[in-house]
Amino acid sequence: MTVLLKVCGATSREDVELLGAAGADLIGLWRGVPGGHADLPPGRFTALAEACRAAGAAAPGRPAPEPMLVTFLRTPAAILDAARTADVRWLQLHGYQPPGVVAAIKRGWPEATVVKVLHVTGDACPERPLLASYERAGTDLFLFDAVGAGGRVGSTGRSLEPDVVIDLAEATSRPFLVAGGISAANRTHYEKVAAHPRFAGVDVDTAARDRTGAFCARSVADIREQWRASPDLEGVIP
What we know:
By secondary structure, the chain is α/β, with parallel strands linked by helices. It has a single domain, classed as Alpha-Beta Barrel (TIM Barrel), CATH 3.20.20.70. The chain is globular. The longest helix is centred in the N-terminal third of the chain and has 13 residues, at 42-54. Strand 6 (141-146), helix 6 and strand 7 (176-178) form a beta-alpha-beta unit. Helix 1 packs parallel to helix 2 and helix 1 runs parallel beside helix 8. It has an eight-stranded parallel β-barrel with strand order 1-2-3-4-5-6-7-8, surrounded by six helices. The protein has eight helices and eight strands, in the order E-H-E-H-E-H-E-H-E-H-E-H-E-H-E-H.
């Protein structure tokens, strides 16, 4: 399996079709992100998850992109209800949910792939003391993301330093994704990260858009092309 490209924040069928055709492997759909610019009501979340699965027909020879729930919800029952209703099996816990939430989700739906975001400010990560607990709870992948001004999390556009990423990766035993200012242009800056044996891929939002804020197929394709020049991960991703 090659390096994963996740693009976050789709809000329409047109977004999903563009991202699928441009080569996104995972499309982040926001649900339970209060005040978020891409937060989706239940019906639209389900409709866009279905659109993701149908997008493969528009790109023959390429698998349909997987929809991914991106949520700040903290109650396992609410997270599972949102995911199961839309049949979304990739769940990104993008908040400060404790390990017990991960454990409850995995008990309720063992087949789900749980991605736990680790929030990084400079070289500090508040979840670091809990990494072993998150792993025991059943976390499948970690996602390293930079915290923005005022503690803002998600789609901050801020970048993580490669040495910080490597240090955090070495404190875990799970595959990891990297977010925060990732683009086609800075692929070489992350050479050490891309060469790490558990590097699983990248998560982008801002860099996948044009100056108007709309998703741009050329930008997504460029990111895919640059970041796919990385080690093969067959057998690593769940």
